[in-house]
Sequence to fold (406 residues):
Amino acid sequence: MMRSLYAGISGLQNHQLRMDVIGNNIANVNTVGFKSSRVTFKELFNQTLRGAAAPAGPTRGGTNPIQIGLGTALAGIDVIHQPGNPQVTGVATDLAIQGDGFFVLQDAAGGYAYTRAGDFRLDAAGYLVNADGLRVLGWQAQGGVLPARDAVNLGPIRVPVDMFVPAQASSRVTWSSNLDATTPTNTPLTRAVDVYDSLGNAHTLIFTFTRTGSNQWSWQAEDAANPGTSLGQGTLTFGNSGLLTAGNTGTVSFTPTGAATINLQVDFSGLTQYAAPSTLEGTADGYPAGELTSFAIDTSGTITGTFSNGTTQPIAQVALASFANPAGLLRDGNLYWESNNSGVARIGVAGTGGRGALTPGALEMSNVDLSREFVDMIVTQRGFQANSRVITTSDEMLQELVNLKR
Fold:
């Protein structure tokens, strides 16, 4: 009878632990990135009343052991790392992981912490941080170029609001579309193209195209601010098919005040000559200096900035970590740490190496299934009641035993 009392006590204790876990799951049903837990039991151990016996001779069979269990014990509390559903928020810095993987954070001691909660924001210094101010780690671009995405180059991600890109001087002008083959000779056709110097100042070049004869055109470039001075000229020759056969390229050179000399390679290979309206179009590379106006994060975690001059370039890339055994991680709130049984963090780019892709502008919700939790709560409650009944019944039996002396 004492065995049944202690077995009932162990049942009460462990069902109470299970109810604690269920309560924690339900409490965190709306916690971003929360992973539910489950409790498993095992039999405490067995007392052997009689061992097993082998068959003895041709007429006597063997006997099985007689054992009695002494209650239940906690086998484990496992974290269920099944992804939760993403909820769209529209916030640029919110990220949800679709699949396996964890965001990498820098803890107060300079070590690595991991989380599934992607409710990030920018602090006053431009660093991407979580709700507790821990910095999100990844790879910072230099001059629009990302470094090798490995653990060596890992560092805090920063999106400075005062970021700008320097001016890029123009080096090439490209012409495309058609010159009208029926244009009268010596009738000029002009088009303007904007180019930029090394300081980012814009200069308008006027290109003049003049039909000089059958299948032949001349071109000349001038600075709109200084007309009458040729900066470059040449001849275009077209074949009977209307395609350019000679004069595919040219050069234009001039020195703006206070800036470096601009040497332009002019590409005419995209021109044709047909009996159709002239639709000349010239484009130049280069751009002025630009300030950061906005940024966006894609599914690989690359943060791309858009600048006031119309250019875009990578600013940084968010890193993800994966583990051989995520259930072996140590958990503290929304953060996880490596343990002896989790395996070493494998840090890399989202969507590679078993790491999930990112959903920008969304958050991963809790994976708690309320219907399952309520069913488990009922089962746990009944288990607790049944074990309490074992204790009260055993107590009544002991009371009857004590009353035998009367």
About this structure: The chain has three domains: 2-52+64-81+367-405, 93-165+291-363, 172-284. The mean pLDDT is 93.
